[in-house]
Design goal:
It is a single chain. The protein has 788 residues and is of the alpha+beta class. The protein has 20 helices and 29 strands. The protein folds into 5 domains: 41 residues; 84 residues, Probable tRNA modification gtpase trme, domain 1 (Gyrase A, domain 2); 150 residues, Aminomethyltransferase beta-barrel domains (Elongation Factor Tu (Ef-tu), domain 3); 203 residues, Aspartate Aminotransferase, domain 2, CATH 3.40.640.10; 123 residues, Aspartate Aminotransferase, domain 1 (Alpha-Beta Complex), CATH 3.90.1150.10. The protein has a 7-stranded mixed sheet, with helices on both faces. A 6-stranded antiparallel barrel has the order 7-10-9-8-11-12. Strands 3-6-5-4 form a 4-stranded antiparallel sheet. Strand 13 and strand 14 form a beta hairpin. Helix 10 crosses helix 14.
Length: 788
Amino acid sequence: AYLYRFGEDDFIVVVNASNLAGDLEHLRRHAAAFPGVEVADHTADLAMMAFQGPLTREVLESLLEDGALPEPRRNALSAVTIGGAEILLARTGYTGEPICFELMVPADRAEAVWTALVEEGAPRGLVACGLGSRDSLRLEASLPLYGHELGIDPEGNEFPAYSFPLSSTAVSFSEKKGDFVGHEALERQFAIDREIKAGEFRGSEILPRRTRGLALLAPGVARQGCEVFAGDAKVGFVTSGTVVPYWKFEGQGAAMTISDESGRRSIALACLDATLRPGAEVEVDVRGRRLPARVVAFHGRSDAPPFFRPAVAAPAAAPAAAPAAVRAADGPERAHSVLRRALDNHEWRQRDCINLIPSEMTPSPLVRLLQVSDPVGRYAEHRELAAFGQEVFYYQGTDFIAWVEEQIAAEMSAFLGCRLIESRPVSGQMANMTVFSALVDCRNRGDRRREPGRIRQAMNNHIGKGGHLSSQPMGALRDCIARDPATERPAVVNFPVRVDNPYRIDVAATGELLERLNPEVIIFGKSMVLHPEPVAAVRAMVEGREDRPLIMYDMAHVLGLVGPHFQEPFRDGADLVTGSTHKTFFGPQRGVIGADFAEGTPLFDLWKAVRRRAFPGMLSNHHLGTMAGLLLAAVEMNAFKDEYQPRVIANAKAFARALSEAGLAVEGDPAVDYTETHQVIVNVGYARGAEVARTLESNNIICNYQAIPSDEGFTASSALRLGVAEMTRFGMAEGDFEEFAALFAAAVRDEPGVGEAVAAFRGRFQEMRFCFAGDDFAAVQERLRGTF
């Protein structure tokens, strides 16, 4: 059964057709104990259509008369109108296709909607499939079917619920759920399931077998009921099996595409001894013949849209060869190879390429030279000791680094507009991890003996809407965020975005959320960023609360734009700013944390926790070579920011306008020239981002493919993310970006001769600006070079 929730109190349960009467009776019997619950049978009122495959989104979008497709994530729901029919639409399916929809259509309009789908989809290759095709697809996706993997097994016993792995995601034992039918029996199975996953299972009558995938390694077809053996011991039986066709893929990584070549494979699901794990070799008795097979974790993957990707079992691999011997006499040759390739890459990227990756920046020559001066191989661990009331260094020869850190703090304080700076993190991700770890440390300072509690709840930008990876539960928040007891997922709430511009936070809708919620921390900042964040508006919403959320702004991408030309975070009300120092900022690859807490306040306790978590919590050696480089980069930024920052923003706007005029689909609001930062987002067609980015690279244009808010994931990226900061630093101005836009558009269309033209164009922009150079610095530059 599948349970849908289309409204606060509006649920739809879709059950196996053969179980309708029994399931309905079961639900009505138990619903009687809950006043206000009504169970109605809508079987005759609704038709259900499964619309599955990579092009279904495109077909549905062309047919929509009202409403919008569900959010691009599994199980998302919406209501739409097609052909005058009001339809409940779900991103669900029984085929394993990552792009999947199921339509619940009024029965009297079903034929008309079906006809519309077929007619619109036919030119794109749509094929109507029956239940037999669907059964092959669900088997390939390792999905269960009643009478095969659920219900009564071939030996006459009932399949335990946890014998099928999906049960672990379908059952919850949260205290919020209370007691429910089957709770005790399911909890016993759950305990065994945990043992199996931990590799601690030693056998149990409660859950003796689990359903696993089987891939046959010899010609033949395993069918339901075929016995499975490990040696002479019977270890289970096949529950479903068939031979399926599959398309072969070509290419590498996210740019892989379906080829014209297909194959066939024999696959099955089998209920096997719970001690058997993926990789185990077994035999299947097929009509008296023992066929070799392998237990597999899956027959294919659905987590790289837009395609289902078959996982074809190969013959057992030969043991890995012993590592090749390395001869000392060959050292010079290998060294020359390394140096030659490094120099070739350097010359290609620095002389021939237009570098447009927004997260990259070439440091100035002097900054690069400082990075490899003496501190590059040194240590300078230090922390404040209460006994001394000051920073204590654990190594000698560190006076210079102590001075460097003091000067960085002064330069960065002036730049960010705050009093407190922590410059030891070696990346923006580490800066965020330091802050989140400090929040956990600080919230538990009242009782150090108990298991520490995690951050109760956070609000951030969803990764699919441009949010930073480092601010997600899969990133730096992972070990610091609590679980929501209602959902049993990380307690993170995402900012709603505007319907008319999904690159902007919906401030009004955020206010409505904050009327119901009080997150412990609100995290602004994005990696796909076209606008300033509404820090001041949100600070005003939570100001005055007794337990006000901490407001953090991860400015990794826009750190070099801080100021009146873009945004002043502390004036807007941010409590903490983190960032990486090498995107729009001029520095080497490091991280930084800034705050403006007054000493003696509760928030200053948080700052002390930040300092403790920086060292010894997050690192020991804080990469002193790049720290010396960061100091000079910060001096450069303060010296040149008033000219550099408006130039970057003006260049981005000019580039976006020119790309649009060249016929490309530029994302964002044309009323502000599509962008207010260093970034430009270009839509090159659904799921074509990786392919086009590779084409551009072959033409000496370096950028990255980017999923936009309507995409299901990065493998379905429809866009390119472009940044103008680095090439602005090499002297490109608005007119240059307008000229280059024509070359860029030609490269997107894969026209011949573009690569040579791009290299020639780059030849005009070889000298770095916004840095210290020329006669005044020639002597010191030569002296630094002379240290080698």
